[in-house]
Design brief:
Layout lengths: L1 H21 L10 E6 L6 E8 L3 E5 L5 E4 L3 E7 L5 H24 L9 H23 L1 E4 L4 H4 L16 E3 L5
Parallel strand pairs: 4-7
Antiparallel strand pairs: 1-2, 1-5, 2-3, 3-4, 5-6
Helix pairs in contact: 2-3
Length: about 180
């Protein structure tokens, strides 16, 4: 009986490992999401980074492509990944409640034990680690670049070699809705 359980466990473990290897994320051809904070009083805008040149940056806030001259860009922030601090905190809360609840249930099965501190203690540890992780994840998922670093910004654009001639262009625009 024990060997049968071991064989079944190994089969399921192998299948799970193969599923992890095969289920890779598809490669996206889209540019990274950017947020442009203007150097003037215009409102900030965000959208997909289409292309970059020494003179301007092309962003698609919707269906159209807008050219924003570097002289009007105060700060440009690129989102490097979709993982953010909020997701890390949500994971920490859920796992803290599950782990703390399971340990509280196990503790309550033992006689003469004080179990009232188990759930708050475990949840507190998860929240502390989650908060530290959230700050690290949030700061590493974004990168701020300026006009002087426009060549480094090309790697995050849909068209890193420049805007193709076949795409419709709109003239210079200020960042904003």
């Amino acid at each position: 009986m024990t060997s049968r359980v071991l064989v079944i466990g190994l089969v399921f473990g192998d299948l799970a490992l193969q599923a992890c290897v095969v289920s890779r994320q598809p490669v996206t051809v889209l540019g990274h999401s950017v947020r442009i904070t203007p150097s003037e009083r215009d409102s900030a805008s965000s959208g997909e980074l289409i292309a970059v040149s020494a003179e301007s940056v092309w962003v698609a806030p919707g269906a159209e492509i807008v050219s924003v001259p570097w002289s009007r860009v105060g700060r440009l922030q690129v989102r490097l990944s979709n993982v953010n601090g909020g997701g890390a905190m949500a994971y920490s809360v859920v796992m803290g409640l599950l782990t703390g609840g399971a340990l509280f249930a196990a503790c309550s099965q033992v006689e003469d034990t004080e179990c009232a501190v188990v759930l708050p203690g475990v949840l507190g540890m998860w929240l502390l680690l989650g908060a530290l992780s959230a700050m690290t994840i949030e700061s590493s998922s974004q990168k701020a670049l300026g006009a002087a670093q426009w060549e480094a910004l090309r790697a995050y654009a849909r068209f890193p070699q420049g805007l193709p001639d076949s795409l419709p262009r709109q003239g210079p625009a200020s960042p904003g809705p």
